[in-house]
Known about the structure:
By secondary structure, chain A is an all-beta fold. Chain A contains no helices and eleven strands.
Amino acid sequence: KQEVTQIPAALSVPEGENLVLNCSFTDSAIYNLQWFRQDPGKGLTSLLLIQSSQREQTSGRLNASLDKSSGRSTLYIAASQPGDSATYLCATSGTYKYIFGTGTRLKVLA
Amino acid sequence: DGGITQSPKYLFRKEGQNVTLSCEQNLNHDAMYWYRQDPGQGLRLIYYSQIVNDFQKGDIAEGYSVSREKKESFPLTVTSAQKNPTAFYLCASNGLAGGQDTQYFGPGTRLTVL
């Protein structure tokens, strides 16, 4: 059974710092891996999706990488801003189902 | 604008009551999902539907029921059999974005048992 883990559970950084969020999964037989952002009391917004055949995806200040063999993905945020404060979740997809990590709660201090 | 709507945003339930959470999408997606989110936990799958008139249990289906009579709608009923229903409920659908299969989420319904 797929298990997805995100460490750390919470992170505080000063504005402008580059940071990396980690996601690990136990079963490498995935279709894709997706990173989401969730603001308090809101739904999830998709940030980046990496297909199983890809190594990384980039969107603006965000870069996500995928290493299926080691069961790891990272989300790199460059030049962090207070507006980046949110919870970031990763999810692996299999046949019709997504398995979510518990998320990393990020706070960027002005 | 295309998207997923959930209603109500907040819902209060008395002990022993059944309540129904609404989820509607105009994205023309076939697959729809219901998740439950508790503080400090990830999303857990309750039910999912790949096509109209068909649905499957997820990991925590006990005490919940769904229907999928229309492509656009996937309502979730929280029955009195669900012993700890207070949580944040998220509806999602699956569709293609840039050629990739992507999950889209609604804004959520927060259910509180009084």
